[in-house]
Amino acid sequence: ILYHIHDPMCSWCWAFRPTWYKVLKALPSNIKVIYLLGGLAQDSDKPMPLETRKYVQENWTKIQEVVPGIEFNYDFWSLNEPRRSTYPACRAVISARLQHTKFEVLMTERIQKAYYLNALNPSNEDILINIAHDIGLNEDLFKEDLKSSVVNDLLLDQIHTTKTMPISGFPSLVLVKENNLERINIDYLNSNYIINQIIT
């Protein structure tokens, strides 16, 4: 089993996406991939403090230096009132998966694109509901699940599991091999480096 630990509103996870897809294509068929949500930031209705906004924007700039070609739409910061809250987006991913496993990755992708390319705020439920509609989910069921204690408990369970793993941030990859947990080092530009750690 290969665990991919992430948050849909984690900017480094967005930067890792192109290389991760190359890793997925090259994985041996006997390796099962399981996605786990790490939950970067709890629910909050408070506007993001100015120093946090500055930190996140500087992080975007740093990512673009490290991973050439990764796009960010900086209009996000002038078009929205950002909140430090990623749990709603995480619950949206779980709610999508409950309708069908194929929607798990699709919901994550659409949240990332809404946030980083279209300058929309996935901390807001209306954005998440629009995405659910666009990808063909049952909208009423999605809305119900998004606010349910069942989905919230599933998120908290995943967050708890990630805290037992040998990781230091998101994204992270952890390989379970003969009951041992092995941290796989990530190179944002080199999928072969990652694959070689997994198959050796």
Can you offer a commentary on this structure?
The protein has 200 residues and is α+β, with helices and mostly antiparallel strands. Helices cover 54% and strands 10% of the residues. A hairpin with a 2-residue loop joins strand 3 and strand 4 (180-184). The longest helix is centred in the N-terminal third of the chain and has 17 residues, at 50-66. The mean pLDDT is 97.
Keyword list:
single chain; 200 residues; alpha+beta; 4-stranded mixed sheet; 9 helices; globular
Summarize the SSE layout with pairings.
Blueprint (H helix, E strand, L loop, with lengths): L1 E5 L4 H16 L6 E5 L12 H17 L9 H4 L7 H13 L2 H15 L8 H10 L4 H8 L2 H15 L8 E6 L2 E5 L6 H9 L1
Parallel strand pairs: 1-2
Antiparallel strand pairs: 1-3, 3-4
Number of helices: 9
**Biggest beta sheet summary:** 4 strands, mixed
Spans with pLDDT under 50 lasting ≥5 residues? none
Q: What's the count of strands?
A: 4
What spatial form do the alpha-carbon principal axes imply?
globular
Percent helix: 40-55%
Report the span from N to C terminus. Answer: 14 Å
Radius of gyration: 17 Å
Overall mean pLDDT stands at 97
